[in-house]
UniProtKB/TrEMBL annotation:
InterPro entries: DUF474. This is Membrane protein. It comes from the Bacteria. The lineage of its organism: Bacteria, Pseudomonadati, Pseudomonadota, Gammaproteobacteria, Lysobacterales. Keywords: Membrane, Transmembrane, Transmembrane helix. The chain crosses the membrane at residues 20-45, 66-85, 97-117, 137-156.
Length: 158
């Protein structure tokens, strides 16, 4: 079981509420990234170039509207929960739980960096499309690590 068990009580925002908000936001964000990388990318290879461009721009427009809110919820709830583990995070090498949580947060911050770059990238054409594809694949790999660490930190403890 967990090497760092116990969720301290927060009178303002109870831990279970933060966790549920975090989980819903993670489902939306991770789901969107998986959909982009595993479904949309190859589906768009089969449609005419004009249609592909229009779908890509509609998807990008929708993502620019929705995702900032999803990410705000994801990172705010994550921060709220991380506060409960601040003593563990102050010594990330002292337990495997703290190390995995610190790595998970580092990966999440890197995802934020990717997101900011993607939000600032505008325009069309092969070069931009390739840049978006690289960003999506990199975020996809980060997601795999984040989800494995998020669950592993409670079970792979030494
Ligand atoms: C891309 C960003 C992120 C994703 C996709 C993500 C995803 C997840 C997932 C899937 C879980 C497991 C939840 C469960 O099983 O119920 C989790 C747990 C957790 N996350 Fe995140 N997270 C992200 C960012 C963050 C950030 C920025 C922080 C802190 C600053 C954070 C702190 C935590 C904590 C403390 C837990 C443990 C919750 C628990 O089970 O008690 N996360 N995260």
């Amino acid at each position: 079981m967990a090497a760092w068990p116990g969720h301290a009580r927060n009178p303002v925002l109870p831990y279970p509420l933060l966790l549920i908000a975090h989980l819903f936001a993670a489902v939306m964000f991770v789901g969107a990234v998986f959909f982009e990388v595993l479904i949309l990318g190859s589906a768009l290879e089969r449609v005419p170039a004009g249609v592909k461009r229009r779908v890509e721009s509609a998807v990008a427009q929708r993502a620019r509207r929705l995702m900032p809110w999803v990410l705000a919820l994801l990172y705010a709830s994550g921060l709220g929960m991380a506060w409960h583990y601040r003593a563990a995070l102050a010594q990330p090498l002292a337990s495997s739980f703290a190390l995995m949580l610190a790595l998970k947060i580092a990966l999440a911050l890197s995802v934020l960096g990717h997101f900011i770059v993607a939000m600032r990238t505008r325009g069309h054409g092969e070069r931009i499309a390739r840049r978006f594809q690289r960003i999506h694949v990199s975020v996809f790999c980060h997601m795999l690590g984040i989800v494995l660490l998020a669950k592993g930190m409670f079970y792979f403890t030494g």
